[in-house]
Amino acid sequence: LQFLYFIDTRGGKKKMKRLPIADNRCALRKALSDPFKSPSDVYAGIKKVWKGEVSGLQQAVGTVLPTEGEFVSVMEGVRMLAVEGALPHEDYLEVMDEVPEGETEISVSYSRLEARTLLSMSFFGAVPSVPIKDFQCRWGEISWFGLFASPDSVSVARLECLLHYFKTTSDPKWLEESVIKQPITFYRVRVDPSAVPWSTDALKLPDVEFSSSNRIEDFTCAGSHVDFANKNLQIHRIIPSATQEEVLFSIRPELMLCIFMYSTLKAEEAAVFTGASQYCEYSGYLSTFEFEGGVQPEANPPVVLGIDAIAAPGLQYKTGFINRDLGKAYAGFLHGVLKGPNPVISTGNWGCGAFGGDVTLKFLQQLVAAAHAGCPKICYSTFMNPKLEARLGMLNSVIKEKGLTSADLYKAMLDYKGQTNTNLGPEVLAYNLPKSGFEGYAGARIAGW
After folding, report:
1. pLDDT at 137
2. Cβ neighbours around 76 below 10 Å, total
């Protein structure tokens, strides 16, 4: 494959890359030239493009498309779009490398029907990947074949989400022109964190609503939801895994298109997605993730903010890395405020799972970033952890009582080096915050927080 560079003037002067797809689509048309008229036709068609097992797919089909007629009807729709569905360009897909110097964003948009066409092509392995092997400039591959072959529960649940999406988007109501022309836009945005006056601008901090029972997507008042992203979005491939980002992409399958569209995010970049609807309900997380049926897609979906934290727990308290993640959160939050249906942001323990982030530090970084972005309120999910809800709520109350600003919290972050006993992190920080003392600290210790 060969890249061609061009200037895309539809949304201003943007430097983009072209990923050729003509050969892939031609091969798919030859392989799937005959309509699907029976379940055996469907599996025979899949065998032409994938020689491996399909036990995972068969289990998912049994849940979402249990009757032969429905299964064949939905899969024939997928086949037709995969081979004949219209795209903005017949010969290539636009992909985004780093934001050019001097610019703040680049973007690619697809209509909802074009997104379904690309997901249909991906189902049959026809979306190519960018042929670059350098890990620091890595590109992803949107292929479902690994899940097809895996009968484990997470693989099946992720395929059930995809099949439900195909089922929903086969409905005549979804195919109305007012729906299929709705845009889904993928932005790559850039902010220079050194240009943000973290230490000098004393900004009012946003209000915070905490909940351990609500998930990020349950805060329906929020105009933006945070994706706890990997710098290689969705780890650049689809595997039997269900991290927060992978769950998010499973229930909003249109987001899967970013896998082939973005190279590795740079330290000063974030990914912002508008228009991607939620089609599925779920329960669980990681190994307990399960598909729980469908939901009515939103008429005005929240903006999704893809921000990756550093994956280096030992370095997170150093000033350069504090600023790096502050800038990352700010880049996402700013565009959530600018592009969302409202400026409220729903988030949670960003960077604190596999990346090993300090919950207290990441909470403060998000508060400060939100203040600089002009976000008036954060909805914060502690995800089934009521003790953490109480502890962070206590810390936030102290911050409010002392009238602290974003500059105060920035100084606190530079002075805060974490605790060897992380269970005391919020309490110790609250006790040592500037201005008046924290009278409730002893009571908090006695209560066992």
Report:
1. 58
2. 17
The overall pTM is greater than 0.85? yes
Q: What is the pLDDT of residue 432?
A: 61
Q: CB-based burial of residue 405 (10 Å sphere; 0-12 exposed, 13-18 middle, 19+ buried)?
A: middle
Distance CA 34, CA 86 (A): 19
- Residue 90, Cα to own-chain centre: how many angstroms? 27
User: Cα–Cα distance between 48 and 304 in angstroms, integer?
Assistant: 36
Contact 347, 227 (CB under 8 A): no
**CB within 8 A of 377, min separation 6: which ones?**
206, 207, 208, 209, 343, 344, 345
Q: Which element (helix H / strand E) includes 28?
A: helix 22-31
For residues 310 and 331, give the distance between their C-alpha atoms in angstroms, rounded to a whole number: 15
Q: Are 223 and 303 in contact (CB under 8 A)?
A: yes
Number of neighbouring beta carbons within 10 Å of residue 52? 12
Amino acid at 53: E
pLDDT of residue 12: 43
Strand partners, 92: 20
- For the chain, residues with pLDDT lower than 70 are 1-15, 132-137, 417-449
The pLDDT, as a whole number, for residue 220 is 93
The closest of 443, 430, 360 to 397, measured between CA atoms, is 430
